[in-house]
């Protein structure tokens, strides 16, 4: 589901970048460490800050990334041009990832699964494209936050069948991703899960 105008403003500004760079990435590194090189994928890359983080803070050799919104992909292309062939970007859907089975050492989700009506299908796709032993790093937003009246008034999200930390943990396991570490902040949380 595409972001409305308000959420797009909230995503494309220096405050969001600082939160992603200095808080969310830090939490995920504390839980799972770096990717120790290799090939990474970011689903729902937005304007491309996550790709920079995966290269610079998680030590990936290359990052593929996509977003449902062509405008976000254009922003990411402009931002990430300097990385040359270490980065590949496309317009795409996390429920139907354009990659072969077992392609990636790591897949990253900086807050996009909660935007997807059939989010379990996205988890199955993450499992499919990970190599055996590869890891999924996820930073997600929970039902408690999405149900807040102000959030409902200002932002657009699917309303049915959302999740909290425990529910997301069960869905990761059901998709074949073994949860190795997680941290629940109530309104949002963090996971590192491995494909056996
Ligand atoms: C809350 S924003 C997060 C963007 C970026 N990851 C960040 O942390 O700044 C959610 C992003 O997911 C994208 N998105 C929503 N549904 C998607 C889907 N099914 N497949 C790929 N991207 C999707 C939106 O276009 C948006 O860029």
Structural commentary:
The protein is an alpha/beta fold. It has a single domain, classed as Rossmann fold (3-Layer(aba) Sandwich), CATH 3.40.50.150. It contains 8 helices and 7 strands; from the N terminus they run H-H-E-H-E-H-E-E-H-E-H-H-H-E-E. Strands 3-2-1-4-5-7-6 form a 7-stranded mixed beta sheet, sandwiched between helices. Strand 4 (about 105-110), helix 5 (about 120-130) and strand 5 form a beta-alpha-beta unit. The longest helix is centred in the N-terminal third of the chain and has 19 residues, at about 15-30. It is globular and about 45 Å long. About 35% of the residues are buried. It binds S-adenosylmethionine (SAM). S-adenosylmethionine (SAM) binds next to helix 2 and helix 3.
In CATH, the topology is named Rossmann fold
Classified in CATH, the superfamily is Vaccinia Virus protein VP39
The helix fraction, in percent, is 25-40%
* CATH classification class: Alpha Beta
Cα-based radius of gyration, to the nearest Å: 15 Å
Structurally, how many domains make up the residues?
A: 1
Structural shape: globular
- Give the low-confidence spans: none
Q: What are the secondary-structure elements, in order, as H or E? A: HHEHEHEEHEHHHEE
Q: Approximately how much beta-strand content do the residues carry?
A: 25-35%
SS field, number of helical segments? 8
- The termini sit apart by 30 Å
Specify the CATH architecture.
3-Layer(aba) Sandwich
Strand order of the biggest β-sheet: 3-2-1-4-5-7-6
Topology:
Layout: H1 5-11, H2 14-32, E1 39-43, H3 49-56, E2 62-67, H4 70-80, E3 87-91, E4 104-110, H5 119-129, E5 130-141, H6 143-146, H7 149-154, H8 165-174, E6 178-184, E7 188-194
Parallel strand pairs: 1-2, 1-4, 2-3, 4-5
Antiparallel strand pairs: 5-7, 6-7
The structure holds S-adenosylmethionine (SAM).
